[in-house]
What we know:
Layout: E1 22-27, H1 31-49, E2 56-61, H2 67-80, E3 87-95, H3 101-120, E4 124-131, H4 134-139, H5 152-167
Parallel strand pairs: 1-2, 1-3, 3-4
The structure holds 5-nitro-6-ribityl-amino-2,4(1H,3H)-pyrimidinedione.
Residues 27, 29-30, 62-66, 92-95, 97, 101-102, 105 line the site of 5-nitro-6-ribityl-amino-2,4(1H,3H)-pyrimidinedione.
Amino acid sequence: xxxxxxxxxxxxxxxxxSSLRVLIVHTRWNYEIVEALVRGAxxxxxSEYNVKAENISVQxxxxxxxxxxxxxxLIKASKMGTQWFNVxxxxxxxxxxxxxxxEYIAEAVSQGIMKVSLDSGVPIVFGVLTCLDDExxxxxxxxxxxESKHNHGIDWGRCxxxxxxxxxx
Length: 169
Ligand SMILES: O=c1[nH]c(NC[C@H](O)[C@H](O)[C@H](O)CO)c([N+](=O)[O-])c(=O)[nH]1
């Protein structure tokens, strides 16, 4: 029994996301779960913060290991153009198998995403679930049967608007 409310408390600031340009890069691995996370983030940004649907670019890559490179190249390409992204959300689902593959990818992806964000000066929300089994992943995408299920995409959408507004130059 926890003696505190686990999870993030949304900021009580009423951020205006109407001029934000957001990039979502998501994987196609474990796609049904990823799709729910992307929907949670997108619907939160548009319904709670007035982010315009047409200002949310969505790109996909094969797996989580490709997320840092994709984010880096899409940020670079956007800076070449007139419009560039105020914030990026990288979304993937890693589920541990019977080998050490999971550990190596999880470490590489979290370090890689942090590096791209700091190097580019664009905030990147870390939306990669690192789960020990399918049920953990389903629960954290608001799927599955447990009462405690909660779509973490909602939290990532809120985080993206806060970071995007604060980064809006
Ligand atoms: O996004 C994921 N990629 C996974 N592997 C692919 C990896 O991200 C790369 O796409 C692949 O290694 C090619 O670079 C996963 N597993 O292996 O289990 C996984 O659970 N999730």
